[in-house]
Specification:
nine-stranded mixed sheet; 31 helices; 24 strands; 17% strand; disordered C terminus
Length: 873
């Protein structure tokens, strides 16, 4: 046996022990050195961390400067499905990684900005990496969303600003509440900013950052959740074990258990019985990880909110409203404001040390979400799209301008009550308010609203004409127009005045002293009769031919009289009978104007007229006889020179009230004449450059009555007048009773559609234009003077919005001059050239004699004996 082996083993052991002790000594020396010089490694670490953070910060700033922004504007019918919204979310998540390889993680994000500052109810913007612009520009929403590249937003400093960051609280692995798409999930946020006032500097903005997290971050979060679940299970097991032991001890110490042991005789056989503790339950993966169990479409989310105002307290109140709006999404997990509350104070994003980090993320678009803010794209459905058609948007001051008396650019529309209870008079821009249609039952407030608009337009210096068959509007409007600077522009043409002492104006549709083109005058009168009497080339071709030929001669006579400086010797419509039935008058008239008629007309009188039977003229003469039988129309149309001139009224910004009498056959014929003359006058403005045409507004009350007389004429007005800067406001009780051409032209071109209460059947025609939102039932139960109105402002349709019709006594209380009503009535009749009815009647009766005298003096020699023979002469 080798005796040296034990000594060798002992030496080896001693050597190993020496190495261990040496190593321990070295470690102790290092520890002592670090304890004495701890500031050196700490300083080195801080320097390394600072350098690293500086490099990362510089790279982050560079990456942030390369971001782009897109603004999405939905249409009124935007209604996406869940699949479209989900696809948009996938695009956003994918675009968040479209950054250079060197970009820090905090910059790899796509930001959704929901902003309200008074310019719109809720602006929806997407900001993200410049490399993701192509991906983000192609949305699954289709043409219902307009997408444009947006410039950076620069805010003016506000006096009071509050900030908040929201994190998930509650069971953070549970999904948020599934909010339906109808109503819109954004509705609570819209309601929170509905009373925002731009004039007070109010601002509210929500920013939602979406970031795809790396796999290691997800694995780390899962590991934390599993460890927490296991710790929780162990605690539960320990708690159950302690409870079991307590229960067993309590049982053994109880009197009943001891008594049972005495009876059984086993109490001395051994000690207490052994209690087996429960085994820890296996942790359920799905229950422990919740929505983080699967990798599909998981993102990290950062939610920041800022509210500002120039008025103390408004920003804080707005933030409270925003917090309440986000509560709608809460379920087992909910959005909660990050920070610590101590009594009335909250230590959060508005205070040190969080404020600086918040400002950095807000300014540069960094995404550094809390650890708990993991979400699936389905939970963000409500935020991944702009407001849909199911969202009720508020009407802000920027959407509709506020009306002020005397502003020539604005047209009064009504009184709007905002969500905060404030009322203001809203208006549209006169330049783009072309045609308006108001529907509703009698007494609902249509005329009152139109009068308020007309009076406001008059006080702003505008010209207008009101055609009111019932004359009710004139006495209602007079007190508010009785101003000295308006009296000289107001004219009243009233055919409703009874009695021989009544004063009437005068109009000669055939007069030529105003410089009209002869063929236009003839065409206007013939078309008016044809429209009112139902003449056309099929039903009454002979009537149109005879009437046209007769008017051509009378207009030529009037042209000759005016050139001879004798306009008081002009013929009127009532001289058609003399021209057709009196051979002497006809011969003199044709002889006087032979050189003024074209060859075809002269040939017709010499070749065709003598062959016509005696009863061929009845269809022309009968309506003229009805006009002559009415004293008012006889006096109004029987004057050689009338003051009424619709073209001059337009060019000189006149304020004209025309009140035809009733709606019988004779009245409809007179209304047709007025309407056709108005159409001729407006079309004659083609001789004036467009930029020099004076704007003029027409107000037609009782469209059913007016269109019954001249449906095609009224329809042409709604189609053509825009070109000549003349606009029309029409009122009717039943849209369905209007002739089809008028109804179609009106609804097609209307800038404003309004409806008061009425039967659901009558209102359905208007609500159908609005897509039945509001429904006919909602409109039918409106109170008096309440309206639903759709408007056009800056080329965009606003509404339908509910407004209260303006009441003249309230809106124009400062303009009321009841003491000057009599003076205005007198001035308006004087401007219209009104004279007593008996005087006008006498002049009309003697007009044929004056015309005969003129013809006798201006008939060429040798032609006075010419006669066109007729069998009944």
């Amino acid at each position: 046996m080798d005796t040296a082996a034990p000594y060798l083993n002992r030496d080896a052991g001693q050597a190993a022990s020496g190495q261990v002790f040496g190593l321990l000594a070295t470690v102790l020396d290092i520890a002592n050195w670090l304890a004495e010089h701890w500031y050196l490694p700490v300083g080195a670490a801080l320097v390394a961390w600072g350098l690293g953070e500086a490099v990362v910060g510089r790279l982050a700033l560079k990456a942030s400067a390369e971001r782009m922004a897109l603004e999405l504007t939905p249409s009124r019918h935007f209604d996406p499905g869940l699949e479209e919204i989900f696809r948009r979310g996938v695009q956003l998540a994918r675009a968040s990684t479209s950054m250079p390889w060197w970009a820090p993680r905090r910059t790899k994000t796509v930001q959704i900005r929901l902003r309200a500052d008074g310019s719109s109810p809720l602006r929806y913007r997407i900001e993200g990496p410049a490399g993701g612009e192509r991906l983000l520009s192609i949305t699954p929403f289709g043409p219902n969303v307009t997408l444009r590249k947006a410039a950076p937003i620069v805010d003016k400093p506000r006096t009071h600003v509050v900030r908040a960051e929201f994190i998930l609280r509650g069971k953070t692995i549970a999904p948020l509440r599934e909010v339906p798409l109808d109503p819109d999930p954004l509705q609570p946020l819209v309601d929170a900013v509905c009373d925002l006032r731009a004039d007070l500097g109010d601002l509210a903005e929500v920013r939602v950052d979406i970031q795809r997290a790396p796999k290691w971050a997800l694995r780390s979060r899962r590991m934390q959740l599993m460890q927490a679940a296991r710790r929780s299970e162990r605690r539960e097991t320990q708690r159950a074990s302690r409870a079991a032991r307590r229960d067993a001890a309590a049982i053994e110490d109880s009197l009943s258990w001891q008594f049972q042991q005495l009876l059984s005789g086993r109490h001395a056989a051994g000690g207490r019985r052994l209690v087996m503790p429960p085994l820890p339950r296996r942790v359920d993966l799905a229950e422990a990880l919740g929505k983080l169990a699967d990798d599909d479409q998981l993102v990290r989310v950062q939610l920041l909110v800022t509210c500002a105002s120039n008025v103390e307290g408004r920003a804080e109140a707005r933030l409270g409203q925003m917090q309440a709006a986000l509560d709608v999404f809460g379920g087992r997990a909910r959005w909660a404001m990050r920070g610590l509350r101590i009594g009335p104070w909250r230590l959060g994003a508005d205070h040190w040390p969080s404020r600086q980090a918040f400002e950095r993320r807000w300014t540069h678009g960094y995404c550094q979400p809390p650890r708990a803010n993991w979400m699936r794209l389905e939970e963000l459905t409500g935020l991944l799209k702009p407001p849909t058609k199911h969202c009720r948007l508020p009407l802000l001051a920027g959407d509709l301008p506020t009306f002020t008396v005397g502003d020539p650019e604005l047209l009064l529309q009504g009184l709007y009550r905002g969500p905060d209870g404030r009322e203001r008079l809203v208006a549209t821009y006169a330049a783009e308010t072309l045609f308006e249609c108001a529907v509703g039952k009698a007494g609902g407030g249509k005329t009152e609203r139109a009068l308020a608009q007309a009076i406001g337009w008059a006080h702003a210096g505008g010209g207008l004409m009101v055609i009111d068959p019932h004359r009710d509007s004139w006495p209602r409007a007079v007190p508010f127009l009785a101003h000295d600077h308006l009296m000289e522009r107001i004219a009243l043409v009233d055919l409703n005045a009874p009695g021989p002492a009544a004063q009437l104006s005068a109009w000669n549709p055939l007069a030529m002293h105003q410089g009209q083109a002869p063929h236009e005058v003839v065409e206007a009168v013939v078309d008016a009769f044809a429209a009112a009497l139902g003449w056309d080339d099929t039903a009454a071709p002979r009537a149109i031919t005879i009437f046209t030929a007769a008017l051509a001669v009378l207009v030529a006579v009037n042209e000759a009289a005016c050139q001879a400086s004798r306009p008081e010797d002009q013929t009127t419509l009532f001289h058609v009978r003399a021209l057709l039935t009196d051979p002497g008058f006809r011969a003199a008239a044709l002889a006087a104007v032979t050189g003024r008629l074209d060859e075809e007309t002269r040939a017709w009188w010499h070749t065709v007229f003598p062959t016509l039977p005696a009863d061929a003229f009845a269809i022309v003469l009968n309506p003229l006889a009805r006009l002559a039988a009415n004293p008012a129309t006889r006096a109004f149309l029987g004057q050689p020179v009338g003051v009424y001139n619709s073209r001059a009224a337009m060019d000189h910004r006149m304020i004209v009230w025309v009140c035809p009498a009733g709606n019988g056959p004779t009245d409809r014929l007179l209304t047709a004449l007025l309407a056709r003359d108005l159409l001729r006058a407006v079309r004659s403005r083609r001789d004036t450059p467009e930029d020099q045409r004076v704007p003029f507004r027409l107000y037609f009350d009782e469209l059913i009555t007016l269109t019954g007389a001249a449906p095609e004429t009224i329809a042409s007005m709604f189609e053509d007048f825009r070109k000549y800067r003349v606009t029309v406001h029409g009122m009717t009780q039943l849209l369905a009773r209007l002739p089809a051409p008028v109804r179609l032209s009106l609804t097609q071109n209307a800038s404003t559609l309004a409806s008061t209460a009425g039967s659901k059947t009558a209102i359905a025609a208007i609500t159908a234009e609005w897509g039945d939102s509001p429904s006919p039932h909602e409109v039918a139960v409106l109170d008096r003077f309440e309206h639903y109105v759709s408007l056009t402002v800056r080329g965009r349709r606003i509404g339908p919005v509910r407004i209260t019709g303006p009441h003249l006594d309230e809106v124009f209380a400062d303009q009321a001059r009841p003491g000057q009503v009599t003076a205005l009535e007198r001035a308006a009749r004087t401007t219209a050239g009104a004279l007593p009815l008996d005087q006008l009647t006498a002049r009309a009766a003697g007009q044929l004699h004056r015309v005969n005298s003129f013809l006798a003096q201006h008939t060429p020699a040798g032609t006075t004996a010419v006669r066109l023979q007729k069998g009944y002469q």
